[in-house]
Amino acid sequence: RLSKRVLQFLLARLIPSDSLHLCHVQFASQYLKLFALQAGKPVPDAKVIHWGIDIGRFAYREVTHNPKHLLYVGLIAPHKGVHTTIEAVRILVKEYGWSSVKLTIIGGSLFPDYKPGLRNLVRSYALEDYVHFTGFVPREQLPHIYQEHDILLFPSVWDEPFGITLLEAMSCGLAVIGTATGGSSEILEYEVNALVFPKENARACANQILRLLNDQECYERIRQSGRRTVEERFRFERMMDILEHSLTLAIVPC
């Protein structure tokens, strides 16, 4: 809710429609455009141009093995749902007996009590051998980190504006399991290029992970489709062409 209020403030105060011409404004997702319309901004004809990534930099891993290395990348914050991933690992290890799974949590935090709370949660479940916090990692190291993991967990609670982490992981050949909130729903297609679960539902998350652990064919299908999604819809070069064309049109007065 706090994040949504911040977004509403930015739309209402920093983009005053009475002082700016918004006929050529662009949005990174359909969700953001609808949010602006709901905030009363005159942007019905605005272009939605998704972000793209360099698929050469985020190279696809051809050779795979039985999936067991789980990954979270992003801000360590309550609205990102990181606690859900830890709860899911507890279910996998303690209830389902999957002692081979490992979860790496990458990212910094602006919430002084949340990350220590996550560490306490790991200790209380005796998961120190299964959950590893790395802290902040420079972006240039991420392609290598993706290559070392099999499944990306995207447990976001709030409505994401978009989700560049999803594209990076899919490009590298990770199978994605996420909540498909906000703009991320424009990337994730259930049973096609990802598996999804309701936000903050750790058991549903664990069950989707379990599907990939038990079914190598499903795992391969999801990760290969994820790479195709990026190649066909979210290549950096394609998005730059669309952006340049839109800016060329924007030269014409409203």
Discrete helix count: 9
Q: Report on the biggest sheet.
A: 6 strands, parallel
Radius of gyration: 19 Å
Lateral arrangement of strands in the main beta sheet: 5-4-3-6-7-8
The count of strands amounts to 8
Q: Whole-Å distance between the termini?
A: 35 Å
The helix/strand class is alpha/beta
Give the SSE order as H and E letters.
HEHEEHEHEHEHEEHHH
Globular, elongated, flat, extended or rod-shaped: what is the shape? globular
The residue-averaged pLDDT reads: 90
Show unreliable segments. Answer: none
Strand content: 5-15%
As a percent range, the share of helical residues equals 40-55%
Describe this structure in words.
With 254 residues, this protein is an alpha/beta fold. The chain has helices at residues 2-14, 30-38, 82-95, 114-124, 142-147, 164-171, 202-214, 216-233, 236-249; strands at 26-27, 47-48, 69-73, 102-106, 131-135, 151-154, 175-178, 194-196. The longest helix is centred in the C-terminal third of the chain and has 18 residues, at 216-233. The model has no long low-confidence stretch (mean pLDDT 90).
Concise synopsis of the structure shown:
With 254 residues, the protein is of the alpha/beta class. The protein is 42% helix and 12% strand. The chain has helices at 2-14, 30-38, 82-95, 114-124, 142-147, 164-171, 202-214, 216-233, 236-249, and strands at residues 26-27, 47-48, 69-73, 102-106, 131-135, 151-154, 175-178, 194-196.
Top keywords for this entry?
254 residues, alpha/beta, six-stranded parallel sheet, two-stranded parallel sheet, 9 helices, 8 strands
